[in-house]
Amino acid sequence: MSGALILVLYWRSFTSPFVYDDLEQIVNNPNLSTWGSFVQRFLLHPVELTTSFLGYAGSTYRPLFWFSLFIDRALWGLDAGGYHATNIALHLINSNLAFALLRRLKMPLVPAAAVCLLWLSLPINTEVVAWISGRSYALCTLFVLVCLLSALNSIRHGGWTWRLACFFAAFCAGLSHELGILILPLLLLLLLLIEEQRSKNLSITLATLGLAAFAIEAVRFSVKVKSFSGIASFKWAGLALSKYLTLTILPLHMSVERSTFFSLGQSHPWLLAAIVCFVLAFGYAAFQRRNHPALLGGLTWFLICIAPFVVFTNYQGLAERFAYLASVGIVVAIIAVCSIPNQPRLRKVLAGIIALWAVWNLYRTTTRVADWADPVQLFAHSLQATPQSPSLHYNLAYSQKVKGDLHAALDEYQRTIQLDSNYPHAYASLGDVYLQLGSFGEAQAAYKQALAQAPDDIPTLLNSGTADQSVGETSEAETNYQRVLQLDPSNSAAHVNLGVLYMKENRSNDAAKQFAVAVDQKTKDPIPYFNLAVLYQQSGQHDQALALYKRVLELKPNDEDTLANIKLLEQTH
Fold first, then answer.
1. 502 lies in a domain?
2. Is residue 52 domain-shared with residue 164, that is, in the same domain?
3. Do 196 and 292 sit in the same domain of this protein?
4. Which of 308, 335, 370 is the last residue of a domain?
5. Do 199 and 269 fall within a single domain?
6. Separation of alpha carbons 332 and 342, rounded Å
7. Burial class of residue 268 (count of CB atoms within 10 Å of its CB; 0-12, 13-18, 19+)
8. What tens digit of pLDDT does each residue of 332-374 get?
9. pLDDT band at 480 (very low <50, low <70, confident <90, very high)
10. Taking all residues of the chain, what is their mean pLDDT, rounded to a whole number?
11. What is the pLDDT of residues 193-207, one digit of tens each?
12. CB–CB of 112/1 below 8 Å?
């Protein structure tokens, strides 16, 4: 049943493209191409992250997440459907593992099944399931649940098989995502709920988890992981906690980027009321723990799993994917509420409300999955939740540019700059759009703004040179191309552009030198081969010209200009 449900919810994902961070982490990531580069980049070193949100850099170490992408790259190449299938399979497995864990904790069959089906269809989980780059949360959750099941079996039955399974699952969880550190507090919660007595097996199991945690930290220390977090203020923690509750239960507007969502300078009159309500609910659950342990267990599970993202501020601040594991607890608590009333009629009313909520979840999840299938729709709808996000406006503009809607992209890039004037990529992308529209003066101005903030950005220098050349400022263009060659002497595009510039200035010898360098670098751009062939043809070096024309036809078959020049060469022989 869970398999059928997940296919109904996520069938669009099989045809969804790479989007957002997928482009950098998968499509344009050469380190996923070979085993040697993968080991060097992701096993032996952490991944550095720089954040404008906090203003300092940190790093993460999630080699199993990257290994899963490496395997997908080997199997599927750049076919996004295969990667999405892996994400969907992980979500399905996690749902079934959660069901097994609840049954192991003696939750009745129907409530346990209801929890897992509801959790499977929660809208907030779409960011982890429908977004390939969100996989680390699902992968870590898989190992967390396997570890908890193995630990409970180790305590109950003993045996080194369960202890080894417990150790390796905990170790793998920690190498998938930092959330693996929550295994020990989650296990202690489960032991309290089932009132497990102290025993030798319990001590050995806890020692096993402690050893796994030590091993993880030893590996992280050896590769020099630099954490990035700070203690959040009470106001931030309260706002984040209330928002995660809202997003888990009733997410009207969803967004892939929420670093601009909260303004601590504004008043939040509802915050105190929300905190009081949650404290009262938690207090009631604690009071009723003997009669309804699932209610307290669910709320406590939620608090444990969401605490790292509430108590500590991280590189983004708030994100829907952070609630993936925590949301299991909320669903458990909601289902547990149905068992509280003694009156059958009231229970039916509560069950009816949950049924309506389930239907709404199905609707909201399918619409959000549809968003992930269309990048323009994804970013446009995300802006309904976080309209002040420069990153969302920038990514919307990029997606519109890819679709060919240049004027819409122009508006979004300008909106990005209005929200964040220190965004060099936005200025550079604005220049790219102006360049495509033939507005060379505006492109030139945009590139100058970008280079004022990032003077050594090679793509911007190249495009700025093109804009300069288009408005007749050839000396400025030459300066930009020469700057590229100072930064990267082997940059064939700069040599080609300089060669074209020199040809227009009738500096044939200088042009030939630049084209020759590009040809020696075996560039796949046919322009230097063609232009150097033309120069050879003009100087009477017909054999050299013919060889280069043939190379042009290999790179650009049936090129009319090349065929015409070859015919002219044959006539002169």
1. no
2. yes
3. yes
4. 370
5. yes
6. 19
7. middle
8. 999 998 888 777 888 888 889 999 999 999 999 999 999 999 9
9. very high
10. 89
11. 887 788 888 999 999
12. no
Residue whose structure tokens are 């299991």: 328
What is the maximal distance between C-alpha atoms in the chain?
A: 103
DSSP class of 326: T
Residue 400 in this model has a pLDDT that exceeds 90: yes
**Parallel/antiparallel/unpaired status of strands 57-60 and 47-50:** antiparallel
Counts of helices then strands in the chain (DSSP H, E)? 28, 4
Tell me, yes or no, whether 171 lies in a domain. yes
CA distance 537 to 564: 13
Q: Report pLDDT for 405.
A: 95
CB 13 within 8 Å of CB 131: no
Q: Which domain holds residue 419?
A: 390-489
CATH of the domain at 465: 1.25.40.10
Return the exposure string of 178-216: e unless at least 16 CB atoms fall within 10 Å of the residue's CB, then b.
bbbbbbbebbebbbebeebeeeebbeebbebbeebbeeb
Count of structural domains within the chain: 2
Task: Report the alpha-carbon distance of residue 480 to residue 448 in Å, rounded.
Answer: 11
Is the Cβ–Cβ distance between 435 and 463 less than 8 Å? yes
- Rounded to whole angstroms, the Cα distance separating 314 from 301 reads 21
> Residues 179, 283: one domain?
yes
Structural contact between residues 553 and 521, judged by C-beta atoms closer than 8 angstroms: no
How confident is the model at residue 344, as a pLDDT?
81
| Same structural domain, 85 and 11 | yes
User: Residue 52: pLDDT band by 50, 70, 90 thresholds?
Assistant: very low
Q: Above pLDDT 90, what percent of the chain?
A: 61
Among 489, 519, 550, the domain-final residue is 489
d(CA 465, CA 463): 5
Domain membership flag for residue 513: no
Domain match, 351 and 476 both: no
| Start-to-end Cα distance in the chain | 77
Highest mean pLDDT among 164-173, 285-294, 479-488, 494-503: 164-173
**Exposed/middle/buried for 222, CB within 10 Å: 0-12, 13-18, 19+?**
exposed
**502 Cβ contact partners less than 8 Å away, ≥ 6 residues apart:** 508, 510, 511, 514
Contact indicator for 175, 63 with CB cutoff of 8 Å: yes
Residues 285 and 331 reside in one and the same domain: yes
pLDDT at 237: 81
On whether both 364 and 436 belong to a single domain, the answer is no
Count CB neighbours of 538 within 10 A.
10
Kind and range of the H or E run holding 91: helix 80-104
